[in-house]
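User: Please predict the structure of the protein below. I'd like the answer in C-alpha cell form so I can feed it into my own downstream comparison script.

Assistant: Understood. Taking the following sequence of 169 residues as input:
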Amino acid sequence: MKKTKLFIDIDGVLFAIYGNPPILQLRPFVASFIEWASRNFDAFWLTAWRPEQIEQLRNATYGMGPTISYAEWERRKTEAIDELASDGNFFWLDDDPYLSDISFLQGRGWNDKLIWVFPHGINGLNEAIKILCERTKIELPSWMIEIEDKQKDVLPELLEETDKLDLYE
C-alpha cells in the first residue's frame, strides 16, 4: 500500500516562537518526530528553507537521522503538493500557509489536509501530531504517550507556577 505523503514546514512547526522579544527555538522531541514521520509517511520538507540549510539543521540536531525529501516550489507551496500528491493522499503541517494555498486546497475539497500548527510554545507540534494520528488512524508515537502521561502529573503544578510569572516584564 502506498504511504500517505506528509509535507512539513520548519519555522513555526519544528521551531516554535518563545518569549518576549520573540525568538525561535527547536521544539522538544523534534528528532523523534522526524524519525516517526519518516517511518509512517512519505515525508517531504515544504518550507522556504533551502536544502543545504535543512542539511545543516539535520547535522546540528540529530546527525544520522533519516533524510527527508525536499519539495520544490516557487510561488505557492501547493505547487509542490499538486505535483507530488495530486491524488489527495497527503497531509500538510504548517503554521502560516498563504491564502492562495488555502484557496487551492478548498478548491480541491482538501480542507482537512492542512493541519495548522500553533507556532508559539512547546505544544503546537504535539497537538498537530494528535490531529494527524486521528485523521490517518496511525497510533500515537510512544514518546507522545509518555509526554501525555507525564503532563497529567506535572501540568497542573506547572500551570499554577506559570500563572504567577509576569512573562511580559
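That's the full C-alpha cell string. The helical segments are 30-40, 51-61, 78-84, 99-107, 124-136, 142-164.
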